[in-house]
Amino acid sequence: MPLDPDRLAGMTRSESGPDGGSYSVRQVRGSEKAYRCPGCDQLIEPGTVHVVAWQNDHILGARAGVEDRRHWHRACWQARGRRRPAR
Ligand SMILES: [Zn+2]
Asked: Rounded to the nearest whole angstrom, what is the distance from the C-alpha of residue 6 to the centroid of ligand 1?
């Protein structure tokens, strides 16, 4: 499903990501499908409140960053610095 970065902009906040870069972060109520959380490598079950994060400074531009977005457990996003040290 395509997402428009401009449409999402008002509902997001900026935080530094696991690699230290600038990310847009948005909390979502849950989706119909399961996603694999990059923080713990476990599935986020459908309907689970979680966080979607994407890179602001994606090398291919903002739209590519949104298309490359990742779904995280809220706790895993909060702990991203500890669990996934920057390489
Ligand atoms: Zn997780």
From this structure: 27
Q: How far apart are CA 84 and CA 41, in angstroms?
A: 11
Span from the CA of 87 to the centroid of ligand 1 (angstroms)? 19
- Please tell me the distance between residue 54's alpha carbon and the centre of ligand 1 in angstroms: 16
Q: Where are the beta strands (DSSP E) in the chain?
A: 13-16, 22-28, 35-36, 43-44, 50-55, 70-72
- Ligand 1 centre to CA of 38 (Å) is 6
H helices of the chain, where?
Answer: 5-8, 62-67, 74-78, 80-83
In tens, the pLDDT along 4-14 reads 555 554 578 99
This prediction has a pTM of 0.78
The string of pLDDT tens digits covering residues 16-66 is 998 889 999 999 988 899 999 999 999 999 999 999 999 999 999 989 999
